[in-house]
């Protein structure tokens, strides 16, 4: 009851507007949500390193478009209500594409360094991973650790991104054969490929990567 009252007061003082059309009342209105369509799946089968066997990235990321705004507000402002929107977007995609995940044994989020986690308060990749784990009925594991504090990838060019995450990750404990690694956005793929690299070096056989969007 108290939580509901606090929520009402918060909504009155700080009203929420749709990130798509600015209609007052919710972060993403039904009309804008219904206009979000998944795009084609990217398939990494011809990469020389072959660390990532398949990339699944259903939505296009553009900063000024709705998907971009959803990710930015969730990631940097932790608009908690957007977690349900993200769940719905993933679930909508999985309804027609669940077969892509049939072989996975577990879900592993791209980790944040402890310092970054303290700064942000949560790991957005872990939230997405838990959504996928719940829908797919697969365990979410934290077998991947981040041992170096790195600059934010969004502020770097392609080469700098690769150098930024080199040797930044380690595997903790025993890992499964077929792993789904999860992050929020795929841009150059530096983080995804570095995570896949250390997992395969530790014995993983197949790596599928999922990001909510690709830029």
Automatic annotation (TrEMBL):
This is Phosphoribosyltransferase domain-containing protein. The lineage of its organism: Bacteria, Candidatus Magasanikiibacteriota. It comes from Candidatus Magasanikbacteria bacterium GW2011_GWC2_37_14. Transmembrane segments: none annotated. Belongs to the ComF/GntX family. SUPFAM superfamilies: PRTase-like. InterPro entries: ComF/GntX_DNA_util-trans, PRTase-like, PRTase_dom. Residues 144-214 form the Phosphoribosyltransferase domain. It comes from the Bacteria.
């Amino acid at each position: 009851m108290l939580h509901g009252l606090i929520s009402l007061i918060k909504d009155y003082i700080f009203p929420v507007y749709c990130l798509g059309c600015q209609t007052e009342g919710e972060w993403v209105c039904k009309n804008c949500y219904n206009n979000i369509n998944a795009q084609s799946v990217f398939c990494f089968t011809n990469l020389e390193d072959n660390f990532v066997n398949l990339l699944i990235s259903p939505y296009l990321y553009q900063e000024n478009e709705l998907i971009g705004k959803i990710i930015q507000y969730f990631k940097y402002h932790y608009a908690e209500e957007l977690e349900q929107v993200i769940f719905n977007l993933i679930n909508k995609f999985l309804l027609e594409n669940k077969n892509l995940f049939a072989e996975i044994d577990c879900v592993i989020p791209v980790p944040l360094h402890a310092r970054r986690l303290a700064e942000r308060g949560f790991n957005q990749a872990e939230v997405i991973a838990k959504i996928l784990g719940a829908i797919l009925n697969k365990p979410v594991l934290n077998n991947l650790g981040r041992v170096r504090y790195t600059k934010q990838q969004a502020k770097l060019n392609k080469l700098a991104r690769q150098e930024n995450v080199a040797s930044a990750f380690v595997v903790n404990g025993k890992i499964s054969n077929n792993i789904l690694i999860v992050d929020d956005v795929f841009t150059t793929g530096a983080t995804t490929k570095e995570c896949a690299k250390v997992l395969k070096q530790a014995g993983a056989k197949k790596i599928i990567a999922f990001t909510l969007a690709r830029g």
